[in-house]
Design brief:
Number of helices: 3
CATH superfamily of the largest domain: Glycosyl hydrolase domain, family 43
Order of helices and strands: EEEHEEEEEEEEEEHEEEHE
Oligomer: single chain
Radius of gyration: 17 Å
CATH architecture of the largest domain: 5 Propeller
Length: 235
């Protein structure tokens, strides 16, 4: 979910019994806050016959254009677009922005987990990664991207959140920590994530502390807790 001016944009994965692909819809902020669910008709924005997942929209334009991140296995792709209308026969036609890292915790696949947050150091992207040696486990990490050219990775973390709690290790898919949202509130960063494809959890840390540790290449400590049950996040 990304708020731009008075409109909330939602990117999600839909499945048409053929391929999981990325869709976009939107709603006016006032309607959303009033529980008037006047969403626009969802549009498939994926290239034909390709699995596309993990889509996020940057919260503001970069050099006059919108930027969407998405995953085509195994990397994070990006596409600059002039508008978000995606009229008939228009779809994402981007390129690889961020690659997996060999011999690392994110060596098998990566994907954006939450819309980027603008900071003094660059765009903060919360993402997930999977290791070749243990492909059943999803970990959560972070990276800082250049504000003007998000292809440039300034710093990239080790795992910040890994499956260790009972609600992360028991469920439909044990061992999954899958980020879906991140906000800064009351001087804290809160990362909301799906746990074991069965629960909703949140992890938090002081935002300035986290940011400084990240930029220095150190690992910040996150507290976490269960906040809901029977979430159905999908990879």
């Amino acid at each position: 979910i990304t708020l731009i001016e008075d409109t909330i944009y939602v990117l999600y994965v839909g499945f048409d019994n053929y391929l999981p692909q990325l869709y976009i819809t939107s709603i006016k902020k006032d309607d959303f806050l009033s529980y008037n669910w006047n969403f626009t008709k969802a549009i498939n924005i994926s290239p034909p016959n390709i699995i596309v997942k993990s889509g996020v929209l940057f919260p503001e334009k970069i050099k006059g254009r919108y930027l969407i991140f998405y995953r085509i296995f195994p990397d994070i792709w990006g596409d600059f677009v002039d508008d978000l209308e995606f009229k008939e026969k228009k779809y994402l036609q981007g390129e690889i922005f961020i690659k997996i890292r060999k011999n690392s915790w994110d060596s098998r696949k990566i994907g954006a987990g939450a819309p980027p947050i603008k900071t003094r150091y660059g765009w903060l992207l919360i993402y997930y990664g999977v290791n070749d040696k243990d492909p059943g486990k999803y970990h959560i990490g972070a990276m800082i991207l250049d504000l003007e050219d998000p292809r440039k990775v300034i710093v990239r973390s080790e795992p910040l959140i890994s499956p260790s709690e009972w609600y992360e290790l028991n469920g439909h898919k044990p061992g999954i920590c899958y980020p879906t949202g991140a906000v800064v509130k009351d001087e804290k960063i809160l990362i909301y994530y799906g746990a074991a494809d069965s629960y909703v959890a949140v992890a938090w840390a002081n935002f300035d502390y986290f940011l400084e540790e990240l930029i220095r290449g150190k690992k910040a400590y996150f507290e976490k807790k269960l906040v809901g049950k029977k979430s159905k996040t999908r990879k």
